[in-house]
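ARCHIVE RECORD
Type: protein–small molecule complex
Small molecule: flavin-adenine dinucleotide
Source of inputs: curated submission
Record status: active
Notes field left blank by submitter.
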Amino acid sequence: MSLRVAVVGSGPAGIYTAEALVKQSADPVDVDVLERLPTPYGLVRYGVAPDHTSIKSIANYLRKVLELPRVRFLGGVTLGSEVSVEDLLACYDAVVYCTGAMVDRKMGIPGEDLLSSVAATDFVNWYCGHPDVSPEAFELDSPEVAVIGVGNVAVDVVRVLAKTAEDLRATDVPDDVLARLADSQVKAIHMIGRRGPEHAKFTLKELRELGEVANADVCVRPDEAVVLGGDFPRQIKGNIDVLRSWSERSPVGRPRRLDVRFWLRPVEILGTTRVEGLRLERTRLSEDGRVVGTGEFETLPVGMVLRSVGYQSVPLPGVPFSTETMTVPNLAGRVRDREYVAGWLKRGPTGVIGTNKSDAAETVRTLLADAPSGAVASIDELLAARGVRPVTYEDWQAIEAAEADLARTLGRGERVKLVGLEAMLAACGRIAT
Ligand SMILES: Cc1cc2nc3c(=O)[nH]c(=O)nc-3n(C[C@H](O)[C@H](O)[C@H](O)COP(=O)(O)OP(=O)(O)OC[C@H]3O[C@@H](n4cnc5c(N)ncnc54)[C@H](O)[C@@H]3O)c2cc1C
Ligand SMILES: NC(=O)c1ccc[n+]([C@@H]2O[C@H](COP(=O)([O-])OP(=O)(O)OC[C@H]3O[C@@H](n4cnc5c(N)ncnc54)[C@H](OP(=O)(O)O)[C@@H]3O)[C@@H](O)[C@H]2O)c1
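STRUCTURE (tokenized, with ligand):
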């Protein structure tokens, strides 16, 4: 018996789900991958840092899934606007939600809403050319910037701030964004961890890379690099060793300076309309392991605060959602009859791209064991009746070709991102220029 499945979201989780459906099922499966943007690959395109070209090349694997004969890409179709859960359950035997985690978490401190206090999600979207954020959104006009958080996203953000625009010229960073990076006034970047080096979430390879940025001196205060106890897993021990070695180095007068700080928590962002400073409190761990303030404060004279304290999923209309875990409640991927979930929406915003492969495989095992059925309508007819013409895989290929052409014209790398929905839709001939 054949199966028709809608996968909502074309990030790694969605595409690995499509692949697992085709590979794991003994019966033929038709998979439509619905995506709100005209472009596939989710955070691989709009999250992975532009200078991480080898990681970005995972897209070459993902594209092969979209090119499988029974898999279709339907771009420009948003669950919650063009289609509803009811529509999908009428048109498919099963639906798998893979919409990731699109928004930032907040710190909940005074001043967080000031101008130039911004979320890493927006900053990342900006340098990745996401159509939700204009290239004019950021002006790097402050000599000092604080980045809150010591995870891998914070490391990406710090690295982009620390490098020269020339370092990023061969990447796919939109040209207008590159121009703003070239005008950057940033001289000092403060990266702030609320706990110690042994608790930092960044991985060793990513941390080491910060030390290789030729444009910046990386500094760690010897007292903040001290870690008590010694029985740490290899990765953490590696981080501690790198940070300790940096604490023994002196700045050599590079154009930018990166201060990696620990045991400090933001308590207030200062300023009247825009950020004028960041007040931090020194911390320690309580006996039960919580971060507590020591009553000792310092203020950094920063003009911009970038909070990189984690992403968060948003509820999908008509789909169960836990406001406690900020995920879709599920049992091995099953949400309700004929409804499933995979990726960051299923387990929260942690894990690398590959983590989504095993995660998707679990969901697909559950789905295939259930052998769901119930498709009675056609998505093509439903969308046509609503005047919705999805962006096809061929349209996406035209967008890719236009990005490669742009790179050639500008004398930059393999591709340069087109910015804005209009430019992308014009590139595939869907709207007139
Ligand atoms: C800034 C950043 C950098 C990262 N860098 C790396 C890295 O270098 N290496 C690594 O291994 N991992 C990296 N990761 C982690 C990796 O990106 C994630 O593990 C992975 O992308 C999660 O996959 P996902 O499919 O669940 O979500 P996503 O990749 O976010 O995909 C979700 C997709 O759903 C679409 N969507 C959302 N809502 C709707 C809707 N209502 N209807 C239709 N479509 C919708 C979105 O447009 C998106 O395309 C990074 C993460 C971030 C945040
Ligand atoms: N190159 C790569 O492989 C790569 C690149 C980017 C992202 N990713 C992956 O994507 C996932 C998400 O990364 P992420 O960096 O967004 O999240 P993350 O790894 O969870 O890191 C979040 C950081 O924010 C801190 N934080 C949280 N709330 C805070 C608060 N209120 N005040 C101060 N600090 C706060 C956390 O500190 P505490 O630990 O104290 O909570 C932590 O240091 C991770 O799994 C990551 O590995 C991978």
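CURATOR ANNOTATION: The radius of gyration is 23 Å.
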